[in-house]
Design brief:
- The protein contains 31 helices and 4 strands.
- It is mainly α.
């Protein structure tokens, strides 16, 4: 009976030509192919998951398009299209050729490897169907090539069904999203043709598959490490995917609906409560949960007691922040001497500086995170970045952060001096490096535009990965450097220790915290006269005014009282922007003409008073973009970066 069953099995699933060779020779070649296939699957898993061995066997396939966008994006790394395509081609072609040249029993171990070390069960099932089909006697056509190509249909259906939604709207980029699987099909057909053509002349010896398989696999590995590299892959997975922007996007939301839902629950439980009182209490709970005192007291271990919804949200933010920092630290420890460590330290320090905007939570009922204010907890990371990568572009940010913390430091004893001079030295170095980097970026952009030619269309599809400090970040950093330099100028430091202490305290202020207004007001009390800082304090108070007309009046008063001081000149810039907003809101030609004339006068005055400062550069930019700098009805267009940001 067993012999009859085996006879029926062989009738439907017959042996291929390679089975006829010597058992030892046949077994050795088969084991070598299986070993290479295991290495292939492990390398593919390393690219996708970051681990060499993943015992997945998932029953539900993931979105395949996500695999070509994360952790490596094919639009940033075009070589990754070739790598993915050839790897997928080998994953599909090798089991099919093994089943065709040997039999289905020899192909089953390859399917099991794809099942337990590969992507998921559905893809492994497709491989099994292909291997069964190609070894099925009725489908063993006279043309082995045609038979092998037809048996790729299950894999094609798998890629088509589980590719997922395509997020691209541009037709060319939409088509490029499917390039890896299109290349995988074409490469599979090529492998079939090469192996079967060589096999035809050598009578399908068992070793005919091994050289082609080994050479293609080695070529793919070499291409990946030359053009991309495993370190870059890990940086994108562990560092760039956990940058502060991602955490900010996750927790940026309007909490009005959450407050209403929680208020309804409390009123349903205790209907005698005052609805307005409950709403006020909830807002205070949210503000307390995201206050610095509560956040600093938290630890990774679970808190005691049942937390409120606001506390749960705050803790989720902390857990996301800690998790992101752990991923970045993992990369730094794994590649301590790589050039990407500087970028990793930059993101790690920004995560340490990441805090909730409590004033926006109170005034706008909106949860928002920010990292613009340096904190003492992040200072060791910034100093480590400056020590290990002083010439890196991210070290410019480190210099500004350290300079800010130094300027805000209060001496422990009266004999110790303030650190304003050391801070100014760091700021000057940061300004020079930032200016050089902006010039280099502009020259690089000009050269790329001049030599684009036929590559212009390709550059619209494929872009190089953005640098850590983009042009917008560099311009923002240049502005922050200039503002702090202006604030620490001799005009605001007249040698009196009380003035210097007040200046340090003013630098320490955080506009996003609830005590900002109170601390600003406290700085105006009992100040020795004349007060060199009063113009900056009044400017900060004026910028807190939400109503545009009231803010315009306050800025106008500052300009009149301090026409040549740094606070008055900055008020001119802010007033010019307010006038531009009014200009875009007005429908009367006479009013628009007056607003335009007044705004241009203010900007020209800034250029005249401070011709060599960054304030003049800001005024020149606003002047050149008039009247569309803040237009809401037309699309904004940014001007080209200046040749020298320090000059108009």
């Amino acid at each position: 009976m067993a012999r009859k069953t085996l006879h029926r099995f062989k009738r439907w699933f017959s042996d291929g030509p390679s089975v006829a060779y010597a058992p030892l020779y046949k077994l050795g070649c088969w084991l070598l192919n299986l070993f290479l296939y295991i290495l292939l699957t492990m390398f593919f898993q390393r690219l996708q998951s970051g681990q060499w061995l993943v015992w997945s066997g998932r029953s539900v396939s993931s979105n395949l398009i996500e695999q070509v966008l994360t952790p490596l994006n094919i639009f940033h790394y075009p070589a990754y299209i070739a790598v993915l395509g050839l790897l997928l081609a080998l994953v599909c072609a090798v089991p099919i050729l093994t089943a065709q040249m040997y039999n289905i029993l020899y192909a089953l171990p390859f399917v099991l490897v794809a099942l337990f070390l590969g992507t998921d069960r559905i893809f492994a099932l497709c491989l099994l169907v292909s291997c069964l089909a190609v070894s099925f006697e009725p489908l063993r056509f006279k043309s082995k090539f045609v038979s092998a190509v037809l048996c790729l249909v299950p894999e094609l259906l798998y890629w088509a069904i589980f590719s997922g939604p395509n997020p691209q709207t541009d037709p060319l980029r939409w088509a490029v999203m499917y390039a890896p699987w299109s290349l995988a099909f074409l490469a599979s057909v090529m492998i079939f043709g090469i192996v079967l053509a060589i096999g035809h002349f050598v009578r399908y010896r068992p070793g005919v598959l091994t050289p082609t398989f080994g050479l293609i696999l080695a070529g793919v590995v070499i291409v990946f490490h030359v053009w991309i590299g495993m370190t870059e892959r890990d940086f994108q997975a562990y560092v760039f995917s956990n940058r502060p922007d991602r955490v900010q996007e996750r927790f940026k939301q309007d909490i009005t609906a959450l407050l209403e839902e929680e208020k309804a629950q409390r009123l349903a439980a205790e209907s005698y409560l005052n609805p307005q009182g409950v709403e006020n209490l909830l807002q205070l709970e949210w503000q307390a949960a995201f206050s610095p005192a509560y956040l600093q007291a938290q630890t990774p271990s679970a808190p005691a007691g049942e937390p409120t919804p606001a506390q749960r949200k705050a803790r989720n933010f902390l857990l996301a922040k800690w998790e992101a920092q752990l991923h970045i630290e993992r990369f730094i420890q794994k590649y301590p001497h790589h050039r990407r460590v500087a970028d990793s330290l930059y993101y790690q320090a920004l995560l340490e500086d990441l805090k909730p905007d409590v004033r926006a939570l109170r005034n706008e009922k909106r949860l928002r995170l920010y990292d613009e204010i340096p904190s003492e907890n992040a200072e060791p990371i910034w100093r480590e970045l400056l020590r290990t990568a002083a010439d890196h572009e991210t070290a410019i940010e480190a210099r500004w952060r350290i300079a800010t913390l130094a300027a805000a430091a209060l001496p422990e004893t009266p004999a110790e001096p303030f650190q304003f001079d050391a801070s100014l030295a760091l700021l000057q170095e940061a300004k020079t490096r930032c200016q050089v980097l902006l010039d280099q970026r502009q020259e690089q952009t000009r050269q790329e535009a001049a030599s684009a030619g036929w590559l212009l269309d390709m550059s619209e599809i494929f872009q190089s990965p953005q640098p850590t400090l983009t042009r917008d970040k560099l311009l923002s950093l240049y502005e922050r450097i200039g503002l702090l330099q202006t604030l620490l100028d001799k005009e605001n430091r007249q040698g009196h220790v009380v003035h210097e202490r007040r200046l340090a305290e003013f630098v320490r202020l955080d506009p996003q915290q609830l005590d900002y207004e109170t601390r600003l007001k406290a700085l105006t009390l009992d100040a020795p006269q004349p007060d060199p800082l009063i113009d900056n304090i009044e400017l900060a108070q004026a910028m807190l005014i939400a109503e545009i007309d009231s803010r315009r009046d306050a800025l106008t008063q500052i300009v009149r009282r301090y026409p040549e001081r740094d606070g008055g000149i900055q008020a001119m810039l802010q007033l010019a922007q307010v006038l531009l907003e009014k200009y875009n809101q007005s429908d009367h030609d006479s009013d628009r003409h007056l607003l335009r004339t007044r705004g241009q006068e203010l900007l020209q005055r800034v250029i005249t008073l401070r011709p060599d400062s960054f304030l003049a550069h800001q005024a020149q930019q606003l002047l050149g973009r008039w009247p569309g700098v803040l237009e809401a009805k037309t699309q904004q267009t940014d001007p080209e970066p200046p040749e020298n940001p320090a000059t108009p």
